Amino acid sequence: RHIAKSFIDAGASVFICARNKKDLGNTVEMLVSRAQGKQLVRYLPADISDGSQIEHLVNVVLNEFPQLEILVNNAGIYGPKGPIEAIDWAEWLHTIQTNLIGTVDLCRRLIPHLKKRRYGKIINLSGGGATNPLPFFSAYAASKAAVVRFTETLAEEVKKFHIDVNAVAPGL
Q1: Is position 119 annotated as part of the catalytic site?
Q2: Active-site residue among 43, 78, 119, 140?
């Protein structure tokens, strides 16, 4: 919400997604109230842990914003809490799917578009799990640390296309 608000306040158009339709609707109302002139606010409920929803999201986004320049990957869940041998394994995997695989999948699907434009910005939020061990939050910590290394690797892969890729860990 705050990231999208910052982009709107800077004069950009935005396309946002979230799993929670009510929160998404409230955010859209706030963004629309701040938008000026020809700024657009578009949205789609989507769960980035689901590859088919990511595919649909990317198709809709590129149809609405064929000049897309910036991707912000902000999805993140904490996942199960507890010792690794006692947590719900399906929840652990779902956390990796959301925090890491969803981020990677959105990047890989939008990189061809950004390469064609020979310009782009990708911002991946990594969180505190990437900076220090987080006992009993192993899925979150592992996924966010992996986001950092993926970001560093992707930045090297696409720099010749003038695509900047950064990870940000804003903290609480």
Answers
A1: no
A2: 140
